[in-house]
Amino acid sequence: MKLSVRPHVLALAIGAAAGISSPALAFAQTPSPAQGNVLTLNDALTLARRNNPTLQNSVNARRTAAANVRAANGAFLPNVNTSFGGGYREGRQTFFQGQGFGSTNDQLSTDASASANLNLSLGALNDRRAIKAEQSATESDIAAAELTVRNTVTTQYLTALQAQANVVLQDTLLITTTAQLQLARARLQVGSGTQLDVQRAEVADGQQRVASLRARNTVQVEIVRLFQQMGMTPVAGTMLDPNLPAPPALELQAVLDMARRANPALEALKLREESARRQVSSAKSGYYPALSLQAGVSAFTNRFTSTEQLITQAQGSTLSARSSCIRTEEVRARLQLPNGLAQCEGIAFTPVQEAAIRNAQSKYPFDFTRNPYNISASLSLPLFNGFRREQQIEQAQVQRKNAENNTRTQELRMTADVTAAFLQLNTAQQTVELQEQNVRTARTALSLAQERYRVGAISLVDLVQARGDYERAETDRITAVYDVQRAFAALENAAGRPLR
Fold it and tell me: Which of 21, 159, 271, 400 is the most buried (most CB within 10 A)?
């Protein structure tokens, strides 16, 4: 069943040259999709979900929640740190108690290290579960934000659509007042009317032109507001599709059961209640031991800035060792002891040693010498920390109680909102039926008044009164029709999900 607003209007068929013909009743038609740029309600909702900036801010919270979950998962992975450094030391000796220490050659050095540590506790496990619950609550918050935008856009769409229907009504009433003016002038020409009737008809026609102009302006303003809610720049010439589906037949208990299962606001509070329970468990884990694992390794390398100085120093050391060896062995020879004087003559600084020095210098800065690695594990059991654990547990329990109360409050609010919206929808649907009966009666009365005025049985004042009664009845009917749609949108918003 389709519920479309096509206001009943009256138009007088005015003869051109043959005189005044009998008044006729007609129905005005709202623009069809083929007559212009028509924006349907589904299109408006789709564009709003894509462009509404407030909704996009809510969607952005999904990224923060995902990052929090990754960080919580990272608590079960080791923290790994690396370092790389370099240094320079001037080639100057350091003296201590009159003795010189250190090299006289400038020295460059590099060092690198890597370490890893892992801390495991029941608190980290409960924190992860709490953050996962918060992530699910964030998804429910996003769904609730989408529902809010849906309700806002739908309400504004109905407001603009009602204004559009009012334009049709005002335009058809303008046709009626124009026809009444022509009829009053025709009666004056044939002597059955008065100049006062003509002037009154002119005033009524002018007032109706103003009302039609204002109604058109109201439509444009409401459509601009609609595009604002959609998060878009207004598109000139946009018309709204009046063919809205009628609300389906619903039962209150079924809607309440559906809302308890799927209302995103209620679901978010339930998930935060679960997160609060996990936070209590996390606080209580402060009484349990925690395991810590650590491992590390480091390495270094260095070189002197002057390789030739190193070679000279090595040559000097070799010559010094050769001279010392010869002196010692000569003493042994003079004492007629066994000696290795011949071996001393073989002590010399060779090209192989020089090449080794140069090769050692060329390994800088990435040919490292590793230091011993280390691995450690520790198990800690907290005994007393100044009642801070007890304070944290108490705070977590209070937050859990508050979360439970918030959930209960939302359940009561949801039940009340759904029930009120359901009753309002039923009342609005019954009101439409009554208003349609009023319109039929007012339309019949206006038709009779026009015919009686044409034959001179009543004055123009009576005809204007009948037209005013019809206008009010038709306006009330249009309002009642859209009140049904607004009440249904409010019911969907209270239930937390579309009901079609």
Answer: 271
